[in-house]
Amino acid sequence: MMKLSNNLTLEQLLESDWADQFNRAQLSEIRTGLNRNIDVYYADPSIKSDKMKVLRHASENGINLLEYAKDFSVQQLEALLEGAKHNIDYCVYANRQYSHTQMLTIAQGLILNLDVSHYLDHRFDTNQMRVILRGLMHDVDVSIFAKLKYSDTQMHMICQELINGHDVSKLANHKYSAAMMRTLNEILIYKGFDLFKYADAGYTLSQIEAIERGLKNKVPLELFDSIEFDHLQMKQIIKGYIKGIDVMKYVSPDISWIEMKRIRKTLEKGVKNDDR
Question: Using an 8 Å Cβ cutoff, are 211 and 189 in contact?
């Protein structure tokens, strides 16, 4: 039975004026703890009832989280408790700079006995941490992408290709957007065209997609792969070449794609007339 400084038990104090400093919800948590014969170290009026509840659950498991009660949120305390229940060193992530979801992600790695040092930097958001954790779970070299300069979607692209057993030496470039990474990678793997040099040269994703279409249709690159052509102009040149017309009549970055289309349509009509 818990004894206080005035030699009264907590049970006795709860029946005295001392209990007036607690609200009903706080008193409920204290009484619940007493009824379960646990250490109600959380009997402190400065601790809100929702935190008391977490601390009570901790005490029921023989865990004392009182030192974290003041500065940590309810969710953060729950994340510490989750780690303690799994007998891991929750002090590794007992840092209020972490959100509770970051804490839980670190806890998951510790539970799996993984090297969480790769994502302990609190500047990684939860999604970034989860991608790094996934990489560790698949035993890939996460040091390739576990860097703050990569967004979680960029990390995901690199991680997935490592899991697939592909070379990511070209893909792992933080200057590529995740969409650019995906497109370049798919074109390389499934179409066999290495277009990374165009991304490095500053071509847009739409331009690169147009170049891939041209290559697929065996259109000479020198006709349309200049960065001075926007993707709409490129498409008009490619369409014209496929139709068998003299695209040199409008292969110029100074001609708008709308004018290119008009010229192409006119030339295509001429080709049709010649075929009659």
Answer: no
